[in-house]
Design a protein that fits this description.
The chain has two domains: 91 residues, 3-Layer(aba) Sandwich (Rossmann fold), CATH 3.40.50.12670; 67 residues, no CATH class. Helices cover 24% and strands 30% of the residues. It has five helices and nine strands, in the order βαβββαααβββββα. The strands form three sheets. It has a four-stranded mixed β-sheet. The protein has a three-stranded antiparallel β-sheet with strand order 6-7-9, with no helix packed on it. The chain is elongated and about 110 Å long. This is Serine carboxypeptidase. InterPro entries: AB_hydrolase_fold, Peptidase_S10, Ser_caboxypep_his_AS. Pfam families: Peptidase_S10.
Length: 221
């Protein structure tokens, strides 16, 4: 039995640790330590399809190094190719000189998981359909009233604008028939705003403002 067995594997589409760099590195280690090539580079198989390539070196004090690639796998080999990965690891662990195409340690037959309705006894809920209806707003009515200066804190006339929506406000209805009881959502929106703006300025305010500007200019000089 070999004292030390090493498996170096890469996904052949791994852009992080590419298989060419690892294969060249192990080949250099083998030559520097007088290892020999027991098995030249050859294919290995999974479900009668090519699963990758492998090569075996041996030498030193019962050292054995297998360099292997997994076809179609990236950096996370077991995630990308779970079936070939299981067969590869099982052969490496359970055999002294593994043949990675050997499928007796694992069952390579694809077995899809059963549906929830078959395993749990409960039927799957169909997708929920949604029906919506929206009633559009009628035209907005607006009125403008002009009042005397008594309606504003500032002397002078002022303009008051009032905007309101018609009583026929928009209604949005959403019905979900597949739920235990239909759900209806009604939304009512109303807007009313009043804006008052002064239109004139008294003579006293003009004089006070001019005097303030004069004093400020004098201080800055």
């Amino acid at each position: 039995m070999s004292s030390v067995r090493i498996l170096v594997y890469n996904g052949d589409v791994d852009t992080v640790c590419n298989f060419l760099g690892d294969a060249k590195f192990i080949d250099g280690v083998a030559k520097n330590h007088g290892f020999t090539v027991d098995i030249p580079r050859k294919r290995w198989w999974f479900r009668d399809n090519v699963a990758g390539f492998f090569q075996r070196y041996s030498g030193g004090n019962n050292f054995q190094i297998d360099v292997l690639t997994v076809k179609g796998a990236g950096h996370m080999v077991p995630m990308d190719r779970p079936g070939p990965s299981m067969q590869m690891i099982s052969n490496f662990i359970l055999a002294d000189k593994p043949d990675y195409s050997y499928a007796q340690f694992v069952d390579p037959t694809a077995k899809p998981a059963p549906l929830l309705s078959q395993s749990g006894g409960t039927s799957m809920t169909p997708p929920v359909s949604v029906t919506s209806s929206v009633t559009m707003l009628p035209p907005v009515s607006s009125s403008t009233e002009k009042g005397s200066g008594n309606a504003s804190p500032v002397s002078g006339s002022s303009t008051s604008t009032t905007t309101s929506l018609s009583p026929n406000t928009p209604v949005a209805t959403v019905t979900m028939p597949n739920t235990p009881s239909p759900t209806t959502m009604n939304t009512t929106i109303g807007i009313s705003s009043t804006i008052s703006t002064p239109t004139t300025t008294s003579g006293t305010q003009k004089i006070a403002f001019s005097f303030s500007v004069f004093i400020l200019s004098f201080l800055l000089i």
